[in-house]
Amino acid sequence: MVIAAILAGGSGSRMGNTAKPKQFMELGGKPILLHTVDKFLLHPEVDGVAVLCPAQWVSYTKDLLSAPEYQSVEVLAGGATRNETLKNALEWARHIGEDSGFGGCGDNILVTHDAVRPFVTHRIISENIAAVKEGGACDTVVPATDTIVRSADGKAISEIPPRPELYQGQTPQSFRCKELAELMESLTQEEEAVLTDACKIYVLRGRPVYLVQGEVYNMKITYPYDVKVAKALLDLDLSDGEKT
Amino acid sequence: MISVTYRLTAPGMIQPDCREFELQPREALLRPLYLSICRADQRYYQGNRPPEVLAKKLPMALIHECCATVVYDPTGTFKKGDTVVPCPNVPSEVDAFIAENYLPSSKFRSSGYDGFMQEYVAVQPERLTKAPANIPPQVLAFLELISVSMHALTRFDAIAHGRREKLAVWGDGNLGFIHSLLLRYLYPQAEITVLGVDEEKLSYFTFCDRRMHVNDLPKDKSRFCDHAFECVGGQAAQYAINQMIDVISPEATISLLGVSENPPPVNTRLVLEKGLRLFGSSRSGVADFQAAADLLAQNPKAAAYLEQLVGEVIPVRSLPDIHKAFAADNHLRFGKTVMSWEI
What we know:
The complex is a heterodimer of chains A (244) and B (343).
Chain A: E1 2-7, H1 32-42, E2 48-53, H2 58-64, E3 74-77, H3 82-99, E4 109-114, H4 122-135, E5 137-143, E6 167-176, H5 177-185, H6 189-194, H7 198-204, E7 210-213, H8 224-235
Parallel strand pairs in A: 1-2, 1-4, 2-3, 5-7
Antiparallel strand pairs in A: 4-6, 5-6
Helix pairs in contact in A: 3-5
Chain B: E1 2-10, E2 13-20, E3 28-36, H1 39-46, H2 51-57, E4 60-61, E5 65-72, E6 83-86, E7 89-90, E8 107-109, E9 112-113, E10 121-123, E11 128-130, H3 137-140, H4 143-159, E12 166-170, H5 174-186, E13 191-196, H6 199-202, E14 210-213, E15 227-230, H7 237-247, E16 253-256, H8 268-274, E17 277-280, H9 286-298, H10 300-307, E18 310-316, H11 319-330, E19 336-341
Parallel strand pairs in B: 8-9, 12-13, 12-15, 13-14, 15-16, 16-17, 18-19
Antiparallel strand pairs in B: 1-2, 1-4, 3-5, 3-10, 3-19, 5-6, 6-11, 7-8
Helix pairs in contact in B: 4-5, 4-9, 9-10
């Protein structure tokens, strides 16, 4: 069973003055979150979709997803941190696994995705699922195009890692539910405090995380600038506006 | 929702274009499965069309031959997961006398209107043909081409006189193969002859009664064929058409299916003398798709022959894979290049 957790934990603070979290901002006449949900709902290999959002936005999110085509989407409160949100997603996955006769977490696959990446493609989702089936965990990445420099003190370069070995992380990140739950359980309080990325847990424990090729346009809408870029991407209608 | 369309912006240049669209209540959403490259797509890709045509039609998503999976159908006509074949002809009116594929108001995918190189495609359910069971999807990918042949044969049946014992097909390419094969099944008692210029290609036509090089016609050409079908097109069309006029019986029909490059000079003196009927057929409509699907469902052996046409099947997961597929197709002498659409 493949289940998708759309992580909509953003508070909107990086979007400037807007009080509304960025996943609820409109893009092409529809909230960003709904564009993202569409991609997972339509994917034939995805059996269930949940949206995890800040507790105070649960009712609002449910209203957005009240149309019949979103009837199957579960809206859950996320946690205070990304790890807590992931735990809530895992708990939900366990429940629907039990309800569907899949015996709890078992071999269920959890595909986690940022709500603010609405340009995710069918291929990326397919390859995430395939990578987990083959390898156990995966991260979606694109090769780094900029030179990345490392600075230990924030003042001077301490290292310039070789660019061919560097990638920029996107989402989805996908896991076997059981393995992820076990690894999260194993974290000490100190580890949990500094771990903001589920894949890092795997790396820390020496478990492989395979790479899935993302797309440059699978961008994360974080800043007002990103909204402009996203809108430009969608307005780039090179035909005569024909509809297919 | 947001979907990516892969549009040809200039010869050899394809650009992913993210589009936001709202599905209409009467539309089904499809995920393309296998896409087949047609010679017309290749001509656009290579830039082998007049500059004014390219300027008018590009940017445009190529490919008008595909099979797809239904991911959502609000009308309930199809179930999620059904394999279907969409008709690339998009009519906007119905005419009592003119078929949908001849109406000037109709649009055609990958000819001035976006083709199927898209992440998701929205199509009205009545434009879809449900795939028969047990037909490989790689064959279904070019059901459109089979339907074109079926369309021409339906017209032939309505136009030609009833003596149909000797039928001849000029053309040893993909269309010639399909057309000869359909004739074999629609007219099982007839003697089917295929004429071509490439011995190796002709060797594929094992289901024909006679295979011959166009330079090796028998000396005695009396009653060489009752009716003929031109599947040559290009520069060679004129030679084929005039040879057909030369050898065909009086009052016969010549069915033209090949797309000529330049206007061919035709020996009209002999056309008049023999009282021939020349008629053209192009593209097809939904009814032709259904007829082609029915024929394959009823004749699994025909579908097996068509599998011989599946040349290279290229998995397409990225933009470079699309270019790879078009490059491979450009070097394919016989058969169809099929893209496994995983992008």
